[in-house]
Amino acid sequence: MDQLSVQQLNLFTSIIKCLREHISWHQDHTRATLTPLTLPASVLNFCADALEVPSDTLESAWEGLGDALWAPCGDELPSETSKLTRDAHMLDVFLTHGTRHKLGLHTIIPPIRACLDIRCETVALDGTVIPQALSKLESYEATLFTRDIGPIPVWSSSASCRNYYTHESGTRRTYYHGVVPSVIEVSKHRYVERVLCERFTLSMATAWVSATNSARIYNLEAGDRVTRLPRDWGHSLDLSTETVWDAFFLNGLILDAKGWNTALELRHDAPDQATRLRPALEARNKRMVGPGQELWNHACNICCDRREKDGIIQMLRSAVSDGVALGHPCCKVHDCKIPLDSQRHHYCGQHQDKNTMCAVVGCDNRVSEKHSTCTEVDHRKLETRGVEAHTAMFQLRRRLERLKIYHPDDEVSAGNAEDGTEGLAAGEVVEIAQDDHPNKPESGNQRIRARFGRRRTHNEQLCVATCGVIFGRATMYGSEGVNGVRVR
Questions:
Q1: Contact 306, 313 (CB under 8 A)
Q2: Could you give the CA distance from residue 166 to residue 121 in angstroms, rounded to a whole number?
Q3: What are residue 432's DSSP bridge partners?
């Protein structure tokens, strides 16, 4: 101990503080709060490299100062997130000396030390219940994307109960009940700090920042920090758009499960993350239509009126239902709520047979080869007009018309809002007149309508009390009508 300088002793203390949980897992769980008799070999060798002293010197120092270094400090911060911020000044030390010993600034380990199944517990002679300790601690490399210090290399560890065997091809993935982790696993080698997930959520909700731009902003912010990381690190340090989405959804689902006092369960053997998350997201969205909102049964003096008539108390509750036109692709069959198998599809799995039908509304003829319409002249004319709508010159002309710059010739009619020709490029209903002669009959020109592109949902409907509290939300598919918000 006398061979350590004040600076070396301070560094030794900081390293022990950073690795406290990692060290604790290398001793029996029944004495996890007690001072370890010895330090793990990996920690001892890491400290020897960082302090540039022999490991024997550190063993002697631990024997004399172990109790003092292991005792809880008064400045301990309450959460793992704040721990990352607190230990940020130690990052260079871990990057320089820690990776070769498989030690990172942050330790990702299970939040519990014993099996949760009461059948694994043993009872001592004095009646003390002893839980079964988790063992077989296994670690693998991963990248942790943090909010304040950028991406850092970490090692994620898992443990198991020796009384149970879980097959590698298990089908269910269960998250800890009531636990909101400080870091979220989005894939086997990629973790995201939860406060960073919250930043993504707030950016999307308040500034409409896309997942792509969130990833770009993060990578630009962390650019100078990435240069300090080991060059031989075998995992990507760039935050991808997919990782942002996965982090956003998983964080929301974990918080939702905690709010409902349930354990989040996902499919473990799913081919991709989208398939894994979809059932849980759909279940949450269905709850939000009815009693899923936190204050769905809210009542106050602003949105409710209480009256007494003939001794009977009557309550009047006011609310406003309105939609936001944020449509997303859906089945082209009106009001069909079955999700598309792919964003590129026009029909759901139940209506795939309609892919061979003419795009003109009401026409049941089969399409011709390499066309979207049947052989009828008017239908083919509509399709030809649609092809023109996709050309760059046509779209430029439309933009200039909106700016009142372009003045088309008489033979190339600009049309009006009812033409719908520019809607073809956007996938909306397109109309043309069957008789384009200016002397139209008193009965009016008969119009044929076609839908060449994908149909999109009509709007996202919100039901809001007059006091501002949201009661529920639902997706309107075909139109904004009463049936769209009716809860059955």
A1: yes
A2: 19
A3: 448
Q: How far apart, in whole angstroms, are the C-alpha atoms of residue 174 and residue 172?
A: 6
The residues, ordered by sequence, that sit 6+ positions from 276 with a Cβ below 8 Å of its Cβ are 173, 266, 267, 268, 270
Asked if residue 464 lies in contact with residue 322, where contact means CB atoms within 8 angstroms, the answer is: yes
Using left for φ > 0, alpha for ψ between -120 and 50, and beta otherwise, residue 362 falls in: left
Backbone torsions φ then ψ of 70, nearest 5 degrees: -85, -20
Helices 241-259 and 194-207, axial angle in degrees (round to 10): 100
Across the chain, which has 488 residues, the per-10-residue mean pLDDT values are 82 93 85 87 94 91 89 60 80 91 91 85 82 86 93 91 68 88 92 95 94 95 78 85 96 94 91 91 86 82 88 88 84 88 88 89 86 86 71 63 54 39 44 50 66 85 88 84 63
Cα–Cα dist 257/276, whole Å: 16
Place of tokens 């075998």: 234
Q: What is 45-97 written as a DSSP string?
A: HHHHHHHTS-HHHHHHHHHHHHHHHHSPPTT--SSHHHHHHHTGGGHHHIIII
Rounded to two decimals, the pTM is 0.77
Q: In this structure, are residues 46 and 15 in contact, taking their beta carbons and an 8 Å threshold?
A: yes
The candidate with the shortest Cα–Cα distance to 426, out of 455, 397, 388, 391, is 455
Q: What are phi and psi of 249, to 5 degrees?
A: -70, -45
What value, to the nearest 5°, has the Cα angle with vertex 270 and ends 268 and 271? Answer: 140
Give the amino acid at 160: S
The whole-angstrom separation of Cα 382 and Cα 390 is 13
Cβ neighbour number for residue 355 with a 10 Å cutoff: 12
Q: Pinpoint the alpha helices (H) of 310-455.
A: 377-389, 392-402, 421-426
In this structure, what token pair is assigned to residue 448?
Answer: 């044929």
389 closest CA partner among 360, 410, 363, 419: 419
193 neighbors 142 (Cβ within 8 angstroms): no
